[in-house]
Design brief:
889 residues, alpha+beta, six-stranded mixed beta sheet, 16% strand
């Protein structure tokens, strides 16, 4: 059939929808050179008329035509409102497996809407006659053969970034004029929501545009008119005889607008050109938080976490168990309804009825359905470090999708239509950052309204914004009680999910000290940023959690401890948290051990790329629950069990103990804490200077220094100023080096949070006394980088100081050197190590890698080399090691 044949035939036909629809579509198939549904799919699993389903009583199913992964098509009588047909398809999209194209037609008019997730909606409209136009024909042909070619190139992320860019300029100007940054953030949130409400037609048509255009001419009245609007949105009311819906939710409660200048209003008018209904909540909060919060300004423009990554937590912890629960409930409903539905259909054919039996079954089934829906509405989901709300937003979407799927599927069994119950009140959040907490609420509100629009649910009872006091702005770890602090309490919930802050144990005290701040009338100790917590906060934290976590634990471990505590106290049933991948080793692993010991980890990803604070990092994802799990998943594959190092190996190296024979041999190099390292040219200049007034050369306190790059690459030739344990008076005699340290290092060290480092500002941050003592009688020692893609050991001369990025082994015999190079030790180090950075390189440390390694009996590090010098094993190993070193050199 040619386009002209098709046009000529259907111009003349005036049959009603039911009489014409299927023949029209069969002709479309012929026109598009595509098999009909019956030809392509005789059993109707992926391409069929009347998808789904004839409801009890003979009413129409979800779509007149459905092709899985391609489109859903609904026919209407000529001259009917095709937008209503699109709403119908939208309402049933979930039951139709969310086809990417929604098509409506009245035989002479066509509308095709694109519906890909995370892209804008593009609409293609054309009349019957236009099928002769190759461009229009190509669009309809693509729907049948290649829908992907119709995917819009503009994504919701693009629109969200553009919106954030426009508002950053406005926010910057307001923050420059107003010292109260939180007031600015709140005002920006109010403006953002007004733009969104305008785009989704929650505000009267044209009102927002008129307000902006009027105040552009009279900027001095902007605050007055915005205050009127905000007041009306708070409680419902009107402006100049125009009714305003009741929004509430706290966003507009008692929060006056800020004064705007004319050029700021011009920026708002420019922002109004965007379709704010399409902003993506999964990145909205992140982007807006970065320009609202001065502490996060450096992250503007950086990447954000992909929602698919967040779903690695949400899917196993929330979605999977709820869907399994629905399948059980669904089977119960089907068992009740199938017999009476079949009997009703048979009786109707004979002109009889068994209505009472059917009604009784339906009441029973609806009670079962309502019990399930009410349980969903009473769920409690907590993110105890919720940031700008991404995890909570996606969790709400998942629960609402399950609820809506249940409602739709119940209709196919003959149950009456019911209402959606699940709302934002199922969400709980704890967030210390006021900017993020504010944005989390806005993110959730916008996402909830978008979900309703996406599913064509038009009824929105007022107030439109449900109260979100469950998103608390407070510390998740400490709370004030009397004159001190105690562990913060988390609410009792069903599920705990989130991405708590990462901060290595060695960095806890870095940065600005925590501050006291009044929040909701209560004096609280607040951590303003994750760059460091300061002595006061860390001391309080260690005191409150004394004996529960090691002091060197990463900050994220405290969230794991509290989540496991919630599980044991029946305050939660299931947990999924994102953590630094270093949780697999060292002190961090101790918080995982009790969870792994009782086999409560049911799913984890040991090493995943992630975006943290705008930077690419590697993380582990750990999901655990109350029950013992005999079938767990590691990296998507089923395993028998998961160890504390997030491996599934039967040889569980997490049980390895530190051996006395290996103690006090391996040491981390000294920590500088300041620019103590200098280039070789300056070092040689100081070395050539005359003796100091104490009669000593600068060679006393100058040493070559090597780091990991020097070992595996080209040596940099750096030296270090090392006063060791000398007093300030003794150090001052070395005139040139001391003056350098006094000028370049002292100013920053005097501000250091560590009292020892402040007081002894001329010394290295950690002098490495144990290393110096152990290598004192040696001519050389063994060293290896802390982080290296390939594990390599080298000899260093005694005069060389290892950087803190190196580990030093205080042995000078070739036998030990050879044992450390063995494939056995390499395998052991990989099994006991942690992993570092975007490159995910293995680390090496004394505690887990060296001190747990079982050296051959009789060749252990506590035995002097001369004792086993005649041992045939030692001789063979030493010979091979020496040969290797000679070849390498």
């Amino acid at each position: 059939m040619t386009p002209h044949d098709f046009i000529d035939k259907w111009k003349k036909i005036s049959l009603n929808e039911r009489a014409s629809a299927q023949e029209h579509f069969i002709d479309l198939c012929r026109l598009m050179n595509h098999p009909t549904p019956a030809e392509d799919d005789p059993i109707g699993e992926r391409f069929t008329f009347e998808k789904g389903v004839m409801k009890t009583g003979g009413t129409q199913g979800y779509a007149d035509v459905w092709k899985k992964g391609y489109f859903a098509l609904e026919y209407k009588k000529k001259k009917r409102d095709l937008n209503l047909a699109l709403e119908q398809l939208t309402r049933y999209a979930a039951a139709l497996e969310n086809p990417p194209l929604h098509i409506v037609c009245d035989t002479v008019r066509f509308i095709i809407d694109t519906r890909w997730t995370n892209t804008i909606v593009e609409r293609h409209e054309f009349e019957l006659d236009e099928l002769a136009d190759p461009k229009k024909f190509k669009i309809l042909h693509a729907a049948f053969h290649n829908p992907e070619s119709l995917r819009p190139t503009t994504t919701r992320a693009d629109i969200t970034r553009e919106a954030a860019d426009k508002f950053q300029t406005i926010s910057d100007r307001l923050q420059h004029r107003y010292p109260d940054k939180e007031a600015v953030a709140h005002f920006v949130n109010q403006l953002v929501f007004c733009f969104f409400a305008n785009s989704v037609k929650l505000l009267p048509e044209g009102l927002w545009r008129k307000l902006l255009e009027y105040t552009m001419q009279k900027p001095s009245e902007a605050k007055l008119h915005l205050d009127k609007l905000f007041s009306s949105m708070e409680s419902g009311g009107g402006i100049d005889f125009t009714a305003i819906k009741h929004f509430n939710g706290g966003l507009f409660a008692g929060s006056p607008a800020l004064t705007l200048q004319q050029d700021e209003i011009a920026l708002l008018i420019a922002a109004n050109s965007l379709d704010w209904s399409l902003i993506d909540p999964t990145i909205f909060g992140t982007l807006f938080e970065r320009f609202l919060d001065p502490d996060k300004r450096a992250q503007i423009g950086a990447h954000y976490t992909d929602p698919s990554k967040i779903m690695l937590v949400i899917e196993p912890v929330i979605q999977r168990p709820l869907e399994a629960e629905w399948q059980i409930v669904r089977a119960q409903i089907q068992t009740i309804m199938s017999p009476v539905t079949q009997a009703t259909t048979a009786q109707d054919r004979k002109g009889k009825s068994i209505g009472k039996t059917f009604d009784a079954a339906r009441v029973k089934a609806e009670n079962i359905r309502d019990d399930f829906l009410n349980r969903l509405a009473k769920l409690r989901i907590l993110d105890p470090a919720c940031g700008s709300g991404n995890f909570l937003y996606l969790a709400l979407q998942v629960v609402k999708d399950i609820e809506y799927k249940a409602i739709l599927e119940c209709e196919t069994f003959g149950l009456g239509r019911t209402y959606n119950r699940v709302g934002p009140e199922i969400l709980h959040g704890i967030e210390i950052n006021t900017f993020a907490a504010e944005l989390a609420r806005t993110t959730i509100w916008i996402g909830d309204i978008q979900w309703e629009i996406r599913n064509a649910i038009m009824h929105r009872p007022e107030p439109i914004l449900r109260n979100l006091n469950t998103i608390e702005c407070r510390d998740a770890l400490l709370t004030k009680q009397g004159g001190g602090y105690v562990a913060a309490q988390w609410p009792e919930v069903d599920y705990i999910v989130g991405n708590p802050p990462f901060l290595g144990g060695q960095k806890l005290r870095n940065g600005s000290p925590a501050k006291y701040k009044t929040v909701n009338g209560e004096d609280k100790l607040i951590r303003e940023a994750e760059s460091g917590l300061g002595d006061e906060y860390v001391d309080t934290l260690f005191k409150v959690y004394d004996g529960k976590l090691a002091g060197s634990s990463d900050l994220v471990c405290y969230w794991f401890y509290k989540a496991w505590e919630a599980i044991n106290n029946d305050y939660a049933t299931s947990v999924g948290l994102v953590t630094t991948n270093s949780i697999r080793g060292g002190a961090n692993r101790e918080v995982i051990k009790p969870i792994a010991d009782v086999e409560s980890i049911f799913e984890c990803w040991d090493d995943e790329p992630w975006i943290n604070k705008g930077a690419s990092v590697r993380v582990s994802i750990v999901c655990f629950k109350q029950e013992t799990n005999h079938n767990a998943k590691l990296n998507g594959l089923e395993v028998d069990h998961i160890n504390a190092d997030l491996s599934a190996e039967k040889s569980n190296t997490t049980l390895a103990k530190r051996l006395d024979e290996n103690a006090n041999i391996a040491f981390q190099g000294p920590v500088k804490v300041g620019r103590f390292d200098i280039d070789g040219e300056l070092a040689r200049k100081w070395l050539s200077e005359p003796l100091n007034v104490n009669g000593q050369s600068n060679s006393d306190i100058l040493r070559p220094i090597l780091n990991g790059n020097d070992i595996v690459g080209q040596p940099s030739g750096r030296w270090i100023i090392d006063f060791n344990a000398k007093t300030e008076h003794a150090a001052s005699f070395y005139q040139s080096p001391f003056e350098y340290v006094k000028r370049e290092i002292k100013p920053t060290r005097l501000n250091n949070n560590n009292i020892q480092r402040r007081t002894n500002w001329w010394r290295l941050g950690a002098s490495g006394t144990d290393l110096r003592t152990s290598t004192q009688k040696l001519k050389r020692y063994i060293s290896t980088p802390r982080v290296s893609k390939h594990r390599v050991f080298v000899w260093l001369e005694k005069c060389v100081l290892p950087d803190s990025r190196l580990f030093a082994i205080a042995r000078d015999d070739d036998t030990t050197f050879g044992i450390l190079h063995s494939s056995i030790h390499e395998a052991w180090s990989l099994a006991t190590c942690s992993w570092h950075g975007v490159g995910n390189d293995p680390t090496y440390n004394a505690r887990s890698c060296f001190e747990t390694f079982p050296f051959p009996r009789g060749l252990t590090p506590n035995i002097p080399a001369k004792t086993f010098s005649k041992d045939p094993r030692a001789i063979r190993i030493a010979k091979a090691a020496k040969h290797l070193d000679n070849l390498r050199r």
